[in-house]
Amino acid sequence: MLTDVLYALSDSTRLQIVARLASDGELPCAESSAPTPKSTLSHHLKVLRESGLIATRAEGTQLFNSLRREDLDARFPGLLDAVLQGARTCSSLPSRS
User: Fold this and answer.
1) How many CB atoms lie within 10 A of CB 85?
2) Distance, CA of 22 to CA of 25 (rounded, Å)
3) pLDDT, one tens digit for every residue, the chain (97 residues)
4) How many CB atoms lie within 10 A of CB 81?
5) Which residues is 64 bridged to in the sheet?
6) Of 2, 8, 63, 68, which residue is least crowded by CB atoms under 10 Å?
7) What whole-number distance in Å separates Cα of residue 53 and Cα of residue 62?
8) How far apart are CA 75 and CA 61, in angstroms?
9) How many Cβ atoms are within 10 Å of 13's Cβ, its own excluded?
10) What is the 3-state secondary structure of the chain?
């Protein structure tokens, strides 16, 4: 649902996580964000997962997160690019490769 996606992107930490995944691709949970307490990072990842922005897969004992870009672009064309571009112009988010 669009409101869930926009809510998830409204938090600066979650937006940084999404921007990092957009620029770097799949990342282990621990590398998804700037230094953040584990419980806080877990909460942000849960919100992103439940809104449909990211997917999580397990490999051994590690969890990896990836952006569901194709699904998002199919459902909300241009939304993710517009949000990330807008965020980049307002802050120091990483640019997309």
Assistant:
1) 14
2) 6
3) 889 999 999 988 899 899 889 888 899 887 766 677 888 888 999 999 999 999 999 999 989 999 999 999 999 999 999 988 887 777 655 554 4
4) 14
5) 28, 57
6) 2
7) 20
8) 32
9) 17
10) CHHHHHHHHCCHHHHHHHHHHHHHCCEEHHHCCCCCCHHHHHHHHHHHHHCCCEEEEEECCEEEEEECHHHHHHHCCCHHHHHHHHHHHHCCCCCCC
How far apart CA 39 and CA 79 sit, in angstroms, is: 29
- Residues 7, 44 contacting (CB under 8 angstroms): no
Distance CA 92, CA 57 (A): 28
| pTM reported for the whole predicted model | 0.82
Side by side, which strands form the sheet with 54-59?
27-28, 62-67, 54-59
